[in-house]
Amino acid sequence: MNFDGKVVLVTGAGRGIGREIALAFSSRGAYVAANDITPINLDQTIDQISAAGGVAKDFVTDISKKMPVQTMVAQVLDQWERIDILINNAGVEPHAPLLDLDAWDWQRTLDVNLSGAFYTTQAVGRVMREQGQGVIVNIASIAGRAHGLKDRSAYVASKMGLIGLTREAARELAAYNIRVNAVCPGVIATEMTAELRQNEVMVSKWLEDIPQNRLGQPQEISGMVMFLCSDAASYITGQAINVDGGKVMN
Questions:
Q1: In tens digits, what is the pLDDT along the chain, a chain of 250 residues?
Q2: In angstroms, rounded to a whole number, what is the distance separating the alpha carbons of residues 173 and 152?
Q3: pTM recorded for the entire structure
Q4: How far apart are CA 71 and CA 123, in angstroms?
Q5: 3-state SS assignment for residue 216
Q6: Distance, CA of 78 to CA of 124 (rounded, Å)
Q7: What are the phi and psi torsion angles at 7 (to 5°)?
Q8: Domains, the chain, ordered by start
Q9: Cβ(52)–Cβ(27) under 8 Å?
Q10: Strands of the chain, DSSP E
Q11: Contact 217, 193 (CB under 8 A)
């Protein structure tokens, strides 16, 4: 999978899966537009890419708001004149029972996880339409499929919505030679799950439901993402693919 000269915009690239995706594309020759809302995290991603000889530029933007997204896309075009691949990875995951969930946390989760993906897909999709091609991959979750998560109602709702957005975007954008797919990770060893992974009872419970009997690694998500963005996946669109060690089989 060679991405020499391709321009890839990755949201939420400051840590975890987003950082791994940015590093993976860079290592295969892509120019990476790395987005995050936290400058210090994004600096670390850019430093790692640069140290490995890659090319990346940071774009500190809150993707939950339409106008900043449009500005960011214009800045990426000023830098590289095109956007070939969009990875919608940015996300938040508040933990609270439904009856106690704060309205701000609910709205913020939908704003980042779902509205953010809509804003970037719309803005970048218009660019890709003019180019006559493009690939979009949304990082959803098995929580948006058949497997819910306790005390994560906002997160589950946002990821189910993201899978729905993926399918409808794929249906509409196929006319412009734009493919849209989603990757649905299971439990991945990232900063987002770090605190929960300290709970041995929780980890044991996770493993009971995973046939491969282990947690996933960020590079296992980036591998699927790059496959979906490659020519090898040229006839795949509108799909939500689980990468979860067999936890959800459908």
A1: 899 999 999 999 999 999 999 999 999 999 999 999 999 999 999 999 999 999 999 999 999 999 999 999 999 999 999 999 999 999 999 989 999 999 999 999 999 999 999 999 999 999 999 999 999 999 999 999 866 678 889 999 999 999 999 999 999 999 999 999 999 998 887 776 656 666 677 777 777 888 888 888 999 999 999 999 999 999 999 999 999 888 888 7
A2: 31
A3: 0.94
A4: 10
A5: strand
A6: 14
A7: -105, 120
A8: 7-188+217-243 (3.40.50.720)
A9: yes
A10: 7-10, 31-36, 55-60, 85-88, 134-139, 178-185, 240-243
A11: no
- List residues with catalytic annotation: 155
Class of residue 95 by CB neighbours under 10 A (exposed 0-12, middle 13-18, buried 19+): middle
CA–CA distance, 197 with 176 (Å, rounded to integer): 43
Q: What residues have CB less than 8 Å from 235, skipping those under 6 apart?
A: none
In angstroms, the Cα distances linking 30 to 10, 53, 179 are: 12, 11, 18
Tell me the two tokens of residue 230.
């490659």
Distances (CA, A) of 245 to 184, 215, 220: 11, 8, 10
What's the Rg (C-alpha) of the chain?
A: 17
The packing angle between helices 116-131 and 66-80, to 10°, is 40
Q: Which residue matches tokens 């029972």? A: 97
Buried b (16+ CB within 10 A) or exposed e, 122-131: ebbbebbeee
Quote the longest CA-to-CA distance of the chain. 52
Amino acid symbol at 233: A
